[in-house]
Amino acid sequence: MPIVSAGDARVDYQVRGSGTGLLFVHGTGFGAQGTWGHLADEFAGSRTVLLPDLSGCGATEDDGTELTVEQLAAQVIGVIEEAGNGPVDLVGFSLGAVISATVAATRPDLVRRLVLTAGWAAPEDEYMRNLMSVWRALEDKPDAFGRFGTLTAFSRSFLNGVGREQLEGIIAGNQPSEGALRHIDLNLRLDIRDLLPKIEAETLVIGCTLDATVPVEHSRELHAAIKNSSYAELESGHVVVYEKPAEFVKLVQDFIHQS
């Protein structure tokens, strides 16, 4: 897989398909393949799909210091400039939505259309601060870390519907890796409110009505703060890309392909 240098990082990314660039930015802890791998081929027939792993995930390497939104945005910018073939459509999920909004605000020349899913803008929600703090505090209890992260990531109906064996597999895959812990630390600090009015790209904000990680009110606030945005909601927990993949793909496809 190709690698691009961005600041102190060597960013590993995947490329699928051909056409106008479409870059997907993953969320906390899970890299590009874990977040987007099952959906990428839905878009690769008509787009060059770019799947970078941010610091803390996959084969991407950096100096291991405290992360900032600006650092991770620079990594996305590096991939766009290396492989995007001009402005791209940019799709971010959770922490990836925060990073994508930062890229669009600071480098409007690189973003054609923007999709922000289950994102937020500031650390002042006491619910989220406590949730992230508890999750972070389970660093030395891998099973509890995985169960807590899974419990808040998915809706009750999804958890009850997948079956215990598959659910235990999801929990086992949700571990307190160094990358996940660095991302949670960033989640507790980030604040992009001043950047939102600077976003020029046509934007779709997607909220998840059953989201127990980033309550849907945060998506509604993003929509209100971004002047050129539209808004949609899906009845899903936080990880909508797994709970409602077909509905999510249709929303994104309809948005990026509109004239």
Keywords summarizing the entry:
single chain, 259 residues, alpha/beta, Rossmann fold, 8-stranded mixed sheet, 8 strands, 42% helix
User: Distance N terminus to C terminus?
Assistant: 33 Å
Instruction: Provide a count of the helices.
Output: 11
Give the biggest sheet: 8 strands, mixed
Mean pLDDT comes to 96
Kindly report the CATH topology.
Answer: Rossmann fold
CATH superfamily: Alpha/Beta hydrolase fold, catalytic domain
| CA-based gyration radius | 17 Å
Number of domains: 1
> Which CATH architecture would you pick?
3-Layer(aba) Sandwich
Oligomer: single chain
Query: How much of the polypeptide forms β-strand, as a percent range?
Result: 15-25%
Task: Quickly name the level 1 CATH class.
Answer: Alpha Beta
Count the strands? 8
Q: How are the strands ordered across the major sheet? A: 1-2-4-3-5-6-7-8
Helix content: 40-55%
Class inferred from helices and paired strands: alpha/beta
So what's the overall shape?
globular
Contiguous low-pLDDT stretches (5 residues minimum) are none
